[in-house]
Design a protein that fits this description.
This protein has two helices and two strands. The protein is mainly alpha-helical and 71 residues long. The chain has one domain. The longest helix is centred in the N-terminal third of the chain and has 16 residues. It starts with a helix and ends in a 12-residue tail after the last helix.
Amino acid sequence: MTEEQNWHNEAAQLLTQFSSSSVRMYSTFDFGRQKNFGCISVIVPHNTANALLLNIRKNLQPGLIAFTGTT
C-alpha cells in the first residue's frame, strides 16, 4: 500500500468511526461543481460538524488536517 493510500484509509476509518455519514473519497469545490481526489470528506448536519471536527483532529496522524466547509 502506498503512503497516499494509507492516509486515505486511516482518515476514512476515522470519519466512519466518528460520523454516521458515507465517506466520499474526494472533496468538492467551486460550489460542488468540481472534485478534488486528493481529499476525503463527509457531509454532516451543521449542528454536529464542530464536535465531529474536534474528535477527528484529536485522532489524526501528524501532517494531516481537518476542516469544515460550507454549503
